[in-house]
Design goal:
nine-stranded parallel sheet; 46% helix; binds zinc ion; two-stranded antiparallel ribbon; alpha/beta
């Protein structure tokens, strides 16, 4: 009898423990998929792809409000006879708000045939790193713009660039690589609802379809892949979801193949929104340690060229645009994003922390200053 009663008690105890365990599991899984609006606001965030070239009085408060920092990414715009960079602007802005910004420098392949090209380029990178740059961007000049004296386009896997990659590996400096454009650039503009329609309509100079002598999308992407493969020690962040944002299967294939590759989301949320949200969510879950939040937002002209009203509207617009992207990642409701009807991803707090902050901070570890 006694034994039986004890048995029963043990059974009951087991049942109670089981119920507690089940409810504990339930409560973890139900809170993991969501984060309160206030909690999200407090979550540290880094926009790894921004172009705040000119200061704004509102920016610091705006960044503080969202616990947001941004990487100021320099771009080298190359025309026939000149290269225009904005690094000095970015340095000045970073000096003004050192707690809000990081710096990313850049270089091009212009002059690659000259004997001092490598020496000059590495010297420039050293100087920029000394001024605070923690990353280096390579832009679509590689593959789409810069040509040698015989008219050949210089691809990113050109072996003459190898000493530069080795220099970056030695100092643990990450490359943010915007190589090629979205596939849409090589295709005719037929669908006004395509997320890239307006960009190429307004910037025909970047619509590769108009320039049949330019290398194909496939050729540039294949050179880019070869470059990633040739430099397994080089840490690479593929900007704009590796210029394959319309095809997450192709991105996954690269992430599986190249362990030195991560991706950044800037200006490609429309492509994500075009794809099935469940599939996109699975992509984020699978590669949660290798995805970084970015926007491509920036300020193109100095504040004094605008009226106070314009600036107020700019601030409101900027906040709306950030909020819209945040909502897509955080919430699960139906929404329209870049003309696409979609559903928010409702990512867990763990994943949000990684893509907004932790993954970026890992790239800063073990960097050395080459001048030391
Ligand atoms: Zn950009």
């Amino acid at each position: 009898m006694e034994i039986n009663r004890t048995h029963k008690r043990i059974k009951r105890l087991n049942l109670i423990i089981l119920i507690i365990l089940i409810s504990a599991c339930k409560s973890t899984s139900s809170t993991e998929g969501s984060i309160s609006a206030e909690e999200f606001k407090q979550l540290p965030k880094i926009d790894v792809h921004a172009h705040y070239k000119h200061s704004r009085n509102y920016l610091s408060d705006f960044f503080n409000r969202w616990n947001l920092k941004a990487m100021l990414v320099d771009v080298a715009i190359e025309t026939n006879d000149s290269i225009v960079r904005s690094f000095d602007n970015y340095v000045a802005h970073q000096r003004l708000l050192p707690n809000d910004f990081y710096l990313c420098t850049t270089f091009t392949a212009a002059g690659i045939e000259k004997s001092d090209y490598i020496e000059r380029t590495i010297a420039q990178l050293k100087k920029d790193i000394e001024q605070g740059a923690v990353m280096v961007k390579v832009w679509k000049n590689f593959g789409m713009v810069t040509q040698d004296s015989e008219g050949n386009y210089i691809q990113i896997n050109d072996p003459r660039l190898n000493p530069i990659w080795n220099f970056l590996v030695e100092n643990n400096i990450t490359v943010l690589a915007h190589i090629a454009d979205p596939e849409q650039a090589w295709r005719p503009l037929l669908d006004p609802n395509n997320p890239h329609y307006n960009y190429y309509k307004n910037n025909p100079q970047y619509h590769a379809y108009n320039f049949p002598t330019m290398p194909s999308y496939e050729e540039i992407i294949s050179a880019r892949d070869q470059w990633i493969e040739n430099n397994p020690e080089l840490k690479i962040i593929g900007a704009h979801i590796c210029s394959m944002s319309n095809n997450l299967d192709a991105v996954s294939e690269r992430l599986e193949k190249y362990s030195n590759l991560s991706v950044e989301l800037g200006a490609r949320f429309g492509d994500l929104a075009m794809q099935d949200s469940e599939k996109v969510k699975l992509f984020f879950e699978t590669y949660q340690d290798r995805i970084l939040f970015g926007t491509d937002y920036g300020t193109g002209k100095p504040e004094d060229q605008f009226s106070a009203q314009d600036i107020l509207e700019e601030e409101q617009d900027l906040e709306q645009r950030y909020k819209h992207l945040f909502n897509y990642l955080v919430r699960e409701d139906s929404m329209v994003l870049r003309k696409q009807n979609t559903k928010g991803l409702g990512l867990s707090k763990t994943i949000l922390s990684k893509i907004f902050n932790d993954n970026f901070l890992k790239f800063l570890e073990n960097q050395t200053n080459p001048s030391n």
